[in-house]
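Researcher: Re-running this chain for the archive, since the previous output was lost when a drive failed. Same request as before.
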Amino acid sequence: MTVLAKFIRLLVSLGCGEATMKTSSAPQGLAEAPDKTAPVVDLRSDTVTRPTPEMRRAMAEAEVGDDVYSEDPTINRLEQRAAEIFGREAAIFVPSGTMGNQIAIKLHTHHGQEIICDERGHIYNYEMAMLSAFSGCVPRLIHGEDGILTWAEVKKRIAPKIYYRAPTGLVALENTHNMAGGTMYPPEVADEICDGAHDAGLPVHLDGARIFNAAVALGKPVAEITRKFDSVMFCLSKGLGAPVGSLLVASREFIDRARACRKMLGGGMRQAGILAAAGLIALEKMPARLGEDHANARFLAEALARVPGIKLDPSRVPTNIVVFDISGTGMTTAELSRRLAERNILMNGINPELMRLVTHMDVDRAACTRALEAIHEICSSR
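Model: Regenerated structure tokens:
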């Protein structure tokens, strides 16, 4: 047994204990053929989760109405509960996190303004340039250490008030930060940015797609760690496990305006209570289990850090996303992804060198161990 295999076994024995290492029956020096009949272990994202049986029952039995007329009682309950949990006046249900972010950007800004954000931020990289296409804004990018901006960095990027410069219209943060590896803002850092921006007359929006992961890792309520933001978007369909949907929370006046903007984007849905029924379960019950995903991510990170050719600091994996450098293995991420897929292990690369995996409720400790075994086998065979 290799040192890594012994390490993985030790981690399992100290952790959940449900996974065991497989002993190879192949002659020494010969790799076993990939088991293509094994269940799929999907670590591409926490968006791949399936609704729980309880969610499916609730969807089938949901009381519905026409939400464009604000007459869907289940949607109304979900929006009211979201506003209560975040300590806000109102909330609006939207089909996706991207729509929620872009509605907020549209309402906070005017054409020709700049938006200060991190260079790896979701609103800049993965929302189809909508901050320009829909709101007529341009990004003013900052490289944040681990995706975390500071007020000292932000204030230097605020445009001077001269007529020939595009004025700053908005500061946008992301918590947790997806492409930085699930990192989270220390509350005092986020608060300082909000206070400084407000003193400068600027609103601050939070892309809080995984804000419940941050809250669990910090041991603080979401209302506390988001209280100074002018608007917050969060997703139900990632770690919380709902099949569809996100919410935008803010003041009542802001949300009233958001309804018209949602309609502009084609987000006015009819009997959407079918979706909201699952969302209510996600919101009320699923945050309590996110710690399991964080533990599995740390389990994976600690073992991956010992694989030859992989670079990773497990101490920088605070939530459910693990980003690691495989350049030392001699493979690209596309090659490693392909070879893992042959073993029914799914994960994606960010670029040719950086791999990302995301833990979630449909991947238990045994599945994580299987993924580790496959990665070690592939890397050791080169």
